[in-house]
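User: Hi! I have a protein structure encoded as tokens and I'd like to know what sequence might fold into it. I'm fairly new to this, so please keep things simple.
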């Protein structure tokens, strides 16, 4: 027995049939239907049986009513109108039954198709199992995809958090760089101020030292002027006494005050003249020393040039001397050859020519020896001149050493101020080292953040690749 459910179209058809039944309360006898008949035949028989007994029953009811109530025309008219309406309803029901028959035929064909589909579906249980497996795998893949998407969301959230931290670190880095730039500017300003303060202190110390030296020089000058005035008065008095003693031998001049005053004035004028002459003598000495110094410098420069030229001449003469030695050796070789030729009993003409060549070679050798002697003497003279110039240079070097000693003393005074500047520079260097350490720490922190950002970017890229692979696998399934 077929256990397939009744299609919804059949149920709708039955409901339609029930809806179009007349509202008259009639009793419709139902005929029994054989089990072997089709659904279509049973449906049509039931419908026909339902329609015809309705008519019979209505007519059966009308006849007794007509026999019992002949005089009631109104009721008859109602019954007749109901009969007419029932006929119209019957016609409508017949038309609807035709439509229902067509629908039943369509439903039977669809039922057969469904039965064939069910039969074919029973044959494809293996495919259903495979489909179930595929569905289970697809569900597992979807679950895995969801888990991967969850991981990806967590990774993206971590990436956003890392990006936010990177932005925070970048902002902090920019802030630190701005602070460092501001501190560098402040350090530069402080350095300029410190240099200005150092220069001011140095100038003030130099001014104070100069003021002290000037005050000391003025005090010494005033002291020397007082001493000089005192000594001048004493000298004038002594000269006056000596002059009076010298003149007292000839004539007595003790009581002549005018003569004494004139003599005293003459002595003062003579002292002034002597001082002026001494100053002129000092100026002449300094000018003479300057002239001597300039002449010595000019002479030293001239000696240097001469020494250089003599060195060049010495080198050239050494070259010529070597060349003469080579020619002398060549002439000696030629004389040896001539001697050998004479010993080998050569002819008279050849012996004469050989003798002439030997004499010429001997003359050339003698001339070269004389020239070598003159050159050696000239070289000795050049050496003596060079020794003299070296002594002059050594004397000048000694004087330069004295100047250097004075310069060293000056440098010793300058070193004190340099030490003070050194201390201030050391303080500034400490501040600069501290700022440099802070900058190095900030740079190391920035490098660490960059490496962490690079690692996080690599991890995110790897997870994105894995997610793309999983999506591609899911799409393939």
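Assistant: Happy to help. Inverse folding works backwards from shape to sequence: for each of the 477 positions I chose a residue that suits the local structure. Here it is:
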């Amino acid at each position: 027995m077929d256990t397939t459910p009744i299609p919804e179209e059949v149920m709708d058809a039955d409901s339609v049939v029930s809806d179009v039944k007349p509202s008259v309360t009639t009793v419709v006898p139902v005929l029994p239907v054989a089990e072997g008949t089709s659904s279509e035949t049973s449906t049509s028989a039931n419908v026909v049986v339902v329609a015809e007994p309705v008519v019979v029953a209505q007519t059966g009811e009308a006849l007794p009513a007509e026999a019992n109530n002949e005089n009631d025309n109104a009721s008859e008219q109602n019954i007749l109108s109901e009969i007419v309406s029932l006929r119209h309803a019957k016609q409508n029901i017949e038309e609807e039954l035709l439509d229902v028959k067509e629908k039943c035929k369509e439903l039977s064909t669809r039922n057969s198709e469904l039965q064939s589909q069910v039969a074919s579906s029973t044959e494809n249980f293996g495919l259903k199992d495979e489909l179930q497996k595929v569905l289970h795998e697809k569900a597992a893949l979807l679950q895995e995809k969801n888990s991967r998407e969850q991981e990806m969301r967590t990774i993206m959230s971590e990436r956003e958090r890392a990006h936010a931290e990177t932005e925070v670190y970048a902002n902090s880095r920019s802030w630190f760089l701005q602070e460092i730039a501001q501190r560098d500017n402040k350090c530069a300003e402080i350095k300029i101020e410190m240099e200005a303060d150092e220069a001011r202190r140095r100038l003030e110390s130099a001014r104070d030292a100069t003021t002290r030296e000037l005050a000391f020089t003025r005090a010494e000058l005033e002291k020397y002027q007082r001493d000089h005035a005192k000594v001048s008065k004493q000298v004038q008095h002594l000269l006056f006494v000596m002059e009076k003693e010298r003149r007292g031998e000839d004539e007595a001049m003790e009581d002549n005050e005018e003569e004494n005053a004139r003599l005293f004035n003459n002595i003062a004028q003579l002292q002034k003249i002597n001082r002026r002459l001494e100053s002129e003598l000092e100026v002449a000495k300094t000018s003479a020393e300057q002239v001597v110094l300039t002449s010595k410098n000019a002479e030293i420069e001239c000696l240097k040039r001469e020494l250089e030229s003599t060195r060049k001449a010495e080198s050239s003469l050494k070259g010529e001397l070597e060349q003469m030695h080579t020619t002398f050796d060549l002439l000696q070789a030629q004389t040896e050859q001539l001697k050998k030729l004479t010993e080998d009993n050569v002819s008279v003409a050849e012996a004469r020519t050989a003798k002439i060549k030997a004499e010429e070679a001997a003359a050339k050798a003698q001339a070269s020896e004389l020239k070598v002697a003159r050159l050696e003497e000239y070289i000795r003279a050049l050496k003596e001149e060079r020794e003299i110039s070296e002594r002059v240079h050594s004397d000048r070097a000694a004087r330069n050493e004295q100047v250097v000693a004075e310069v060293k003393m000056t440098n010793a005074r300058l070193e004190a101020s340099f030490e003070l500047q050194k201390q201030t520079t050391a303080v500034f260097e400490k501040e600069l080292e501290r700022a440099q350490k802070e900058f190095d720490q900030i740079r190391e922190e920035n490098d660490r953040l960059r490496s962490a950002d690079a690692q996080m970017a690599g991890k995110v890229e790897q997870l994105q690749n894995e997610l793309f692979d999983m999506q591609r696998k899911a799409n393939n399934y």
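A useful reference point when you look it over: The longest helix spans residues 348-476. Feel free to ask if any position seems puzzling.
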